[in-house]
Amino acid sequence: MATPEPVSSNRGKPASVELDPMDLYDVRGELTEDECMVQDSVARFVDDQVLPIIREAFEEHRFPTELVSGMAELGLLGCYLDGYDCAGLNSVSYGLICQEIERGDSGLRSFMSVQTSLVMWPIYTYGSEEQKQKWLPAMARGEAIGCFGLTESQGGSDPSNMKTYAKRDGKDWILNGSKMWISNGTIADCAVVWAKTDEGIKGFLVEKGMKGFEAPEIERKFSLRASVTSALFFDNVRIPEENVLPGVSSMRGPLSCLTQARYGITWGAIGAAQACLSEIIEYTGERILFGRPLSHTQSAQIRMADMSRRITLAQLLSLRLGRIKDAGRLNPTQVSLAKWNNVRMALDIARDCRDLLGGSGISAEYNAIRHMLNLESVITYEGTEAVHQLIIGKELTGQSAF
Fold first, then answer.
1. How do strand 172-183 and strand 200-207 relate by DSSP bridges?
2. 378 and 349 in contact (C-beta within 8 Å)?
3. % pLDDT > 70, the chain
4. Average pLDDT of span 347-352
5. Domains of the chain: which residue ranges?
6. What architecture (CATH level 2) is domain 146-243?
7. What are 256-285's pLDDT values in tens digits?
8. pLDDT band at 242 (very low <50, low <70, confident <90, very high)
9. What is the pLDDT of residue 351?
10. Rounded to the nearest 10 degrees, how much is the dihedral formed by the CA atoms of 306, 310, 312, 313?
11. Any bridge partners for residue 244, and if so which?
12. CA 150 to CA 258: how far, in whole Å?
């Protein structure tokens, strides 16, 4: 009888797989080759061009305009639109772009989100062919900047309480009112402004230089300092009929834009959280307390493990959301769930990393305080937590509690 071969003690056991600390569930393994290429190209841009200058821009309360041309060259502006010099990428690719850009800074991602989802998308979806030809190629190339005028000082989370009003005057419209907390407003060449009319809620393309239109910048911000935030004022601004978006006359117009922007935010917040966790892993490995690295303590490891758990859940949530969106089955409530979850996740992680950094946590030498301050805005704009909770509550019960 032949002697049986010895059985290896490792037989039947899975091979050891090295994990990426920023991607424990290998979400990247679920991406297509094209999606990976998009993520890698934007990651290089962030590493090479954004990170070296963003801290200084934040400290100086300055939007880094020098980055716009690079973003345009990569095809990031209007990237998921087809035609008009836009890249025609899918929704997951757009999400990955937002994730990498916000790994750099929320203010830069806000600029891109506004340009793409709140300006180019409504022109693409509700605009005339003449409006599309005039604005979309120029905006895709970064030659024209846009802003989105919906929020008003007295309205906040209740956009239906808008006071801005437009009235017909012959073939033109006369626009009066104001908007508040408008990203890109001061540098915008075109503002997509939503106003009440006798014919419903309409979108107006208000161009820089129109008489009676002013867009002063809001100063003394402690959040999104590397972003331009403005007020918009309209004093009998005459708008020609060709500057009115013809495809919508209801709140569906601005609310559908918000859905597009909120989708990108769900991914962007992941990038901010990853930046904070990556930094704290390195810091705790080098910081010596009571004779050993901080990373060797149970308390630090438990906190970092919880950060990783929350980031992983957010990654899976956004990836699933992106696939649903690309399949054409997206419901705005699904976006609300992800925006609520992912931004809360990122803000909590930024705050905890700031704490783990000790006294260094309040220094701009480290990323956590900058991301933390930025995320205080991100958790508020495009719908506060309460707004998204009530959207989900309405979906569950069939009753509006707004």
1. unpaired
2. no
3. 96
4. 98
5. 27-140, 146-243, 252-397
6. Beta Barrel (2.40)
7. 999 999 999 999 999 999 999 999 999 999
8. very high
9. 98
10. 140
11. 204
12. 10
- pTM across the whole model: 0.94
Instruction: Give phi and psi for 139, each to the nearest 5.
Output: -70, -35
Q: Look up residue 371 and give its two tokens.
A: 């991301």
Amino acid 72: pLDDT: 98
Give the mean pLDDT of 335-359: 98
Give the per-residue pLDDT at 26.
96
> Which of 68, 31, 33 has its CA nearest to residue 49?
68
Residue 70 tokens, joined: 């690079």
CA angle 356, 359, 360 (to 5 degrees): 80
Q: In this structure, which amino acid lies at residue 128?
A: S
Q: How many CB atoms lie within 10 A of CB 23?
A: 15
Task: Check whether 321 has a pLDDT greater than 70.
Answer: yes
Count CA atoms within 13 Å of residue 120 on its CB side: 30
Arithmetic mean of pLDDT, 3-23: 65
As annotated, the active-site residues are 382
157: pLDDT strictly greater than 90: no
pLDDT of residue 15: 60
Question: What is the predicted pLDDT for the residue at 114?
Answer: 98
Tokens of 248: 């919508």
CATH superfamily of 252-397: Butyryl-CoA Dehydrogenase, subunit A, domain 3 (1.20.140.10)
Mean pLDDT in residue range 119-128? 98
Q: Which residue has the tokens 């402004």?
A: 193
27-140 has CATH 1.10.540.10 classification:
yes
302 has pLDDT over 60 = yes
Residue 33 in tokens: 């080759």
Distance CA 90, CA 267 (A): 14
